[in-house]
C-alpha cells in the first residue's frame, strides 16, 4: 500500500506505530548480556518501560534471577522471577518510596560474587524516590509539582531531583559496590545522556550545590531554608565505580529511524529534523509550521510528498486550568499557526502512551481541523490559552489513545506534507 491510497490519519499512525515498535525492549538484550556471576543475579530498576525491560531480560537471560522493579501505575506486566510493583508518576507517592527503600536494600546486600542488573527508563526520577536526609515524601511531592509547572527542561528538573535524593546521581551505584553492576537504559532525554535518564541512579556524578540552587531560582522554584540546607549537605563525589557497564538499548533516534524507513516504504520522502528538540511546545510549533509551509510552497527542505520527523522533549509552562500534556499543546499550536493550510497534517504523541496525566498518547489533525472547529463553535486560541489541548482534540475525535506502551523514548512528531 502506498501513500496515495491511504488517508492522512492512517499514514501518520503507521509512522507512529513503526517508531513505537523500534523503541520496545524486546530482543534488545541479545549479544549484550554479561557473563553469569558466581553468586546471585539481582535485577533492580525503575521507569515506565522497566517492567517490559525486566521481562525481555528474563527471556534472554534464561537463568535464575531475583529482584524488584518499580513502574508507573498501569505499566506493569507479567514476569517469571522479578517482582514488579507500581507507583505514582509524575508526582511520587508512598508506594514509590517503599519500593525505592527495598531496591536500595537489595543493592546494599549484593556481595562481590553477585551481579546487579539495573534497568532504567524515563519516569524513574519520580518512581524511584527516596528523599535525602532531612526531607519528607511531602517535601519531594511539593518539589515535583513545582518543577512540572515551572516549564524547566528535563535536564534541569533532573539536576534538582538528584540534589535532593538519597538514591539518584550515582548514589545507587555506590550502594551496589563491590558487586558488579550492568545498567541497561532506554533513553527519554535529549542527547541520550546516561546521567540524565531517570536522574542517573547508577551513573556517578559530582554534585554542585551552587549550580542547583541557581537553576531553581532561575526557573522560579522556591528555595526554602530547608531545601538549601539539604542540597548543600547532600554532596557526592563523581568518581567512576570500577567494573561498571552501561548499555543503551533504545533511543529517540531509533524510533525516528524506524519511522523514516516506514515513510520510504509508503513512497514519502522522510526528513528527520532532530531527536533532541526542546523548548516551549507552543513556540516549537511555530518554528515547525514555518518549515512545513516552506516545504509546501518551495519544496524545501524536502519536496512533497514528504514527512518531517522529530523527537525530544518540549515543555509546557502551565498558565491555564485545562487538560493535556506537551504533545497536544504542540499540536494545537501547530494547527493554529498553519491556519488550515491544505495538504498538511500532523501527529504528536508521547511514546509512553500518556500525554501529561491524561488517557491519550497525543493527537493528530488534518487540514480540515480549523473548519470543523469553527462549525462546532470551538475557538482554538482559547483552548491554547487555557492549556486545554486534550479537550479540543477530544471534541473533534482526534485523540490518539494507545494505553500504556511499556516503553518511553519521549515525544514523536510527524508532519505530513502532501
UniProtKB/TrEMBL annotation:
Instruction: Give every MOFRL-associated domain span.
Output: 12-231
Q: Which UniProt keywords apply?
A: Kinase, Transferase
Pinpoint the MOFRL domain residues: 306-411
Keyword check for Lyase, yes or no: no
Q: Name one GO molecular function term.
A: glycerate kinase activity
Q: Which GO terms describe its cellular component?
A: cytoplasm
Q: Which InterPro entries match?
A: GK-like_C_sf (IPR037035), GK_N_sf (IPR038614), MOFRL (IPR007835), MOFRL_assoc_dom (IPR025286), MOFRL_protein (IPR039760)
Q: Where are the transmembrane segments?
A: none
Q: Name one Pfam family in it.
A: MOFRL
- The protein's name is Glycerate kinase
- Please give the organism: Xanthobacter autotrophicus
